[in-house]
Amino acid sequence: MVVDLIGSCRAFVSVSEAGSFTAGAAVARIPQPVASRRIAALERHLGGRLFDRSTRRARLTPFGRDLLPSAQRLVALADAMEDDAGRARRRPLRLAVPDTCSTRDLAELDAEARRKEMFLEFCVAGPARRAELVRTQEVRAALAAVPAQDGAWTVPLGLAGEAEPAGRVIHLETLRAGRSGGPRRRVWIQPEDDVPHLRDPLVRARDAAGLQPAQVAVATALTAAAASVFGSADLLLCSPRQARELGLAWRPAGGLRLARGFDVVAGLGDDAGKLRAGLRAGIARCLGAVEPEQAR
């Protein structure tokens, strides 16, 4: 017969401290018959009587007095382990996220995680920095920028400007300088999209359209990119949600299928799986991602 050593020792300690089986069972929060059975099983397991049952009180035998300190240590150690486990479950999982995630979206993601007994702490960083933070173990996980076809989440990108475009798409050829010799229109890439799988196709399309190198530029920050678009004919490479938040008119880029891809990378394998499976919808909201069927 397998003995629940911790449960039996807990009943033994509670009864010995309370002085009766009934009161001890109440302290241990178990029915009195259960306490009696557990103590009897412990006695069989240890090979001796723990209590003298010839009196109305639960009086320890010499054998019971000798074993009580060990039982108390075992119960205290089990309680300490449960406390440690609770603290470990509540230890924040530090997650590196893009600066495109709004404070509200991150707060809602945090609230959703807490309902699932996950506790998050966010570190906002650019794509390269997020990868570095995981490598140096400064964060436990990151939403890494990956090619769209490799991502668990996909965010479509296009071009947005202050003026409402005439067509359903914006072709880079329309940014060629006119005969008037006015300032050349530019496409601004925000830091989140300054990654090879997004920047390089746009640069190749720029060259194919006959634009000048400076007409596709990387901004130091999203705010700087947006500021360059406001009051000008320049365009911002961004998601539809970002365009709405900035009050810009968004269209897909003609001849290009540009999209951010994101996946979870983590130092510990179970962290990645836990985030990907348990918080998939909340992370999608933060990123402004589309559902897989929408992305097709």
Automatic annotation (TrEMBL):
InterPro entries recorded: LysR_HTH_N (IPR000847), WH-like_DNA-bd_sf (IPR036388), WH_DNA-bd_sf (IPR036390)
HTH lysR-type domain span: 10-61
Transferase in keyword set: no
UniProt keyword annotation of Transport present: no
Segments crossing the lipid bilayer: none
Protein family (similarity comment): Belongs to the LysR transcriptional regulatory family.
Superkingdom, natural source: Bacteria
Protein's name according to its UniProt entry: LysR family transcriptional regulator
Source organism per UniProt: Amycolatopsis ultiminotia
Keywords: Transcription, Transcription regulation
